Amino acid sequence: MSLSTASSSRADVRIRDLDIVLGGTPILSGMNLDIEPGEFIVLLGPSGCGKSTLLHSIAGLIEAHDGRIDIGGRDVTWADPKDRGIGMVFQSYALYPTMTVEKNMSFGLRIAGTDRAEIDRRVQQAARMLQLGELLQRKPSQLSGGQRQRVAIGRALVRDAGVYLFDEPLSNLDAKLRGELRRELKSLHQTLGATMIYVTHDQVEAMTLATRVVVMRKGLIQQIGTPAEVYQRPANLFVAGFLGSPGMNFVRGGLALREGRPVFTGAGLQIDLGHQDFAEAPADGREVVLGVRPEHLLLHRPDGALPGPGLLPAGRARVTMVEPLGAQTTVWLETLAPQPARIGVQVAADSEPEVGTELALLAEASRLSVFDAASELRL
């Protein structure tokens, strides 16, 4: 089968009640996950959350303690890695230093006894896709880090696998190269239509690459959704705080019902939440955490009229620091209260207020998140 028609071989992945135990310590417990054919799934979370363990268990590099893994409708829970129909790209490239690029890319096919003409055709096609055509006779020591990672990706692609697995493949590269290869991977997925599962702790990679993001923490899935869903409607405080730079603002307070409308009060802020889409009816006196991202706040003169619809008065705050970030600036403020909250607001680079200025805070009504203070779940 040619790489150009690899989309016809793309496979689904079904994980049921998967338990992984390493050295007597449970790493994953009762994991369930469905990945559809052709999806680009990103497993996202901090170090030690179990994302790489999950990827390696799908690859067959870590043995399951219990549960089941299906790839393409076939139970591969106990199958060897070579029999799972996967291609894998590692963080460390894992290239043979004495072999040329061509030999590295074709190694697995040669071991499997693939016809020489078929090997050449697959290697040449993968090399064209990854801009490696002029490098096929070089050895890894003669390549840059970005070129080595392209070779590692090419070695996986020539397998014409049903699923491609990526274990933090860009983490060893500098920022510029990461950006370039990230775009190439996205283009590659669009071209092949293959099923891809990608592990990272970098939220930028997750947001730009994924069709769906799986956010993990301590071996448990916290939320599954499109990048927009997990960013705009985080399921809990962890997801809300993990995504975004600068991070979401959190203000502790309580709900009060005034003429039947819920109002948030806390740390000098007061916001009418009557238009909030609550999953359950808000209760008077409930302790909550209000979440709002810096780009969903607006700074305004305290005596000025509201600049437009959909904006809610939130209170006043005093500028404590201005942090220029090129095209945008983050303004840090403290609310006017005995126990103030620290608030970050993103503004245009040409509208920086002076430190010490007192300003009104306006919040986009449709962009607020409210979490229960005890359970930390979205309300």
Automatic annotation (TrEMBL):
Any one of the GO CC terms: ATP-binding cassette (ABC) transporter complex, substrate-binding subunit-containing
GO molecular function, a single term: ATP binding
Keywords of this entry: ATP-binding, Cell membrane, Membrane, Nucleotide-binding, Transport
Presence of keyword Transmembrane: no
Domain ABC transporter span(s) in chain numbering: 13-243
Membrane listed as a keyword: yes
Organism superkingdom: Bacteria
Biological process per Gene Ontology, one example term: carbohydrate transport
Protein name as catalogued: ABC transporter-like protein
Lineage: Bacteria, Pseudomonadati, Pseudomonadota, Betaproteobacteria, Burkholderiales
